[in-house]
Structures are given as C-alpha cells and as structure tokens.
Design a protein that fits this description.
Layout lengths: L7 E4 L5 E10 L2 E9 L5 E3 L8 H16 L10 E3 L5 H4 L2 H5 L5 E4 L5 H4 L1 H18 L4 H8 L16 E3 L4 E2 L2 E5 L8 E5 L2 E5 L21 H12 L6 E4 L8 H25 L6 H8 L5 H20 L3 E3 L2 H6 L7 E3 L1
Parallel strand pairs: 4-5, 5-6, 6-7, 11-12
Antiparallel strand pairs: 1-2, 2-3, 3-4, 8-9, 9-10, 10-11, 13-14
Helix pairs in contact: 7-8, 8-10, 9-10
C-alpha cells in the first residue's frame, strides 16, 4: 500500500487556513479531504470512502492539525461537511464521521440521491450501465464482467444520510461554489479566496474519468469541457487542491493540457471511424482504442470511449446507420458511421 503523506497547511489570500489530509479510499487508491478554517463554520470537504482505514486516517489527520499547527478544532468542532460529488471514495465515510461530530452535510442536488437514497441510486446506476452496454454492443458475458467492477454503484452502499442540505447557492459563508458537472452530474469545485478545492474535476497527472451522459444527465464529455471553461474563467487562482494526487500550482496551464488531451482523444475516435470498413459499434471502437485493458480498467476504458462517441454523435459528426434494426429490436447495438 502507498505510504500516506503528511498533513499540509495552505493559507488563502484572505487568511483562511486549509489543511490537506490524506486517507486511503479504495484499494491502492489514496484520496485527500480538506479541513477549511477561517471561512465561516469549521468545514470538512469530502469524507473518504468509509472502507478499511479511511475514516481513521481522517481522524488522525484532524489530530495532526491540532498537534502540528496549534488549531483547537477537532472532530467534535466541525459543523459542516461539503461533498464535492457523489462518488463512493468521497462520501462513503459520512456515516462514521457523523457518529463523531454534529455537522450538516451539503451536496449539489444532482448528486444528492447518492447519499440520501444510496440503494436507489446504486440500483438505477447499475440499470443504466446495463442499458449502455447493450446499446454499445458489448457481448453479454463481457458486460457481466465489466459490471462486476462498477464500484461507483456499490451493491452494498452505505446507510442513507438524512437531513442533507442542497448546494443551490453560489456560496456558503466565504466559500464560493462552482457547479462543474461532467465527472459526475453534481460535481462542485470550492473557491476559498485564491485556493481552489477541485475534487476530481482537475487532477495533476490523470485525465479525470468521464462517463457517457446516457448514464445520467449532466455527465459526459460536453458538460466536462464546459465546466473546464467555467473554472478557467475564474481569475486569480493561486493553487488548486484536488481530491487525489499532488497539488496543482498552475491550474490554468493544467486545464489547457487536459483540453488538448481531450481534443486528441476525440480525434482518435474520428480517425478510427475513417479506417473502419463499415458501421461500427461503441464496443468495437473501445476495443480499437484500448486493446490491453482488463477488469476495472476495462470498464473505465469502455466508458471513456463511449463518452467520446456520444460527444461526436451529439454534435453531428457521427450518425446511427441501423435505425430500422434499433426500432424493431430493443437489444440491437447502435452502429455508427461518419456523417
């Protein structure tokens, strides 16, 4: 397992203190939650996964903030938890944390069902994923294998959190809220003066995972690119603090890098379609783009390919060639050609 880094302190231009607390989340994956002080009520941003040592890592981090930086805040003093988005590695620890603190939980309305009605949310996510796999032409046995790795819709989700507050305003106290859909429908970035807490919207090394909008409204590549532009238009961001990986010292440059990468990825699909001998399914396109993936990474690769095909189809670059078959057979795979 990777060794967790130390708690870090970041001071905003307005005097707020933001503490970066590492935690294990899912298997080898590590995450970061943030303690925000001096911008209103003591606030924790994200809650880890609740799996393994995740919650204890966060509690140890809060203790380290007290010991190393002289803050009087501990778990009992936290009054608010803001969840950047409804993925398990960011909300799964809510129940364990709320057993140790009296805090309001805030999340954007479009992701709120993940924590307020987790069983419903997970079941509907699996149902939508099955439909996408059929529409994409994924062989039935392969589809079952891919869905077995769909950890974003766990078969045993955490208990429901009651009295969830909805992030329907542009700010909470001195924390500005930027709705940034794409990676998830209700993803938000939080601006504390010149510090951007960006969840999974922008990562320093990894291109954030995207999912087709056919899974849920406000996912998808189109919404993600629009959200990148929305964040890039915010002036004066000195540091970006993501939910995984290292801090980002030049978020504007990183946004430009991600945009260029996405443009290349879209072009890969168009080039593959030009070389195709006839109508092509999303599954065939995914196999052409990602030939060596397996298990969970095969699911991510497929969803990435599906989001790009969807993007091109929505914008008129592709058309569906087998409309009569689709109308007569609900299990027919959509076959695309360049338009």
């Amino acid at each position: 397992m990777p060794r967790l880094s130390e708690v870090q302190q970041f001071l905003s231009s307005g005097g707020a203190r933001v503490y970066r607390i590492p935690c294990k989340v899912l298997g080898e994956l590590t995450g970061r939650v943030y303690l925000v002080l001096g911008a209103g009520e003591p606030t924790l941003v994200d809650a880890g996964s609740g799996q393994g040592e995740s919650t204890q890592n966060i509690l140890d981090g809060l203790d380290a903030v007290r010991r190393a930086f002289g803050e009087s805040t501990d778990a009992a003093h936290i009054k608010r938890i803001i969840v950047t988005h409804g993925h398990l590695d960011h909300y799964g620890g809510l129940g364990e944390l709320l057993a140790r603190m009296t805090a309001e939980v805030w999340i954007h309305p479009l992701d709120s069902r993940a924590i307020a009605a987790p069983e419903e949310s997970a079941a509907l996510a699996r149902h939508a994923a099955r439909q996408v796999l059929v529409q994409a032409g994924v062989p039935e046995e392969t589809g079952r294998e891919l869905l077995a790795h769909h950890w974003l819709a766990p078969r045993e989700p955490p208990a429901a959190i009651t009295n969830v507050k909805l992030l329907e305003t542009n700010a909470i106290d001195d924390i500005r809220v930027l709705h940034s859909p794409g990676h998830s429908p209700g993803h938000v970035c939080l601006l504390v003066d010149d510090l951007l807490l960006c969840g999974d919207h922008i990562l320093p090394r990894t291109i954030p995972q995207l999912w087709p909008e056919s899974l849920r409204p406000y996912k998808g590549l189109g919404h993600y690119l629009e959200s990148l532009d929305r964040v890039r238009a915010v002036p004066g961001i000195r540091l970006a603090l993501p939910g995984h990986e290292a801090i980002i010292e030049d978020v504007y440059r990183r946004i430009d890098e991600i945009r260029r990468s996405q443009t290349r990825r879209i072009q890969y699909v168009a080039d593959l379609m030009r070389r195709a001998n006839g109508p092509t399914t999303i599954w065939q396109i995914a196999r052409g783009l990602y030939q060596q993936t397996a298990g969970f990474f095969a699911l991510l690769a497929f969803m990435d390919a599906a989001s790009r095909v969807e993007y091109l189809h929505q914008r008129g670059a592709l058309r569906v060639a087998n409309l009569e078959q689709i109308e007569s057979d609900p299990r027919a795979a959509w076959q695309y050609v360049l338009d």
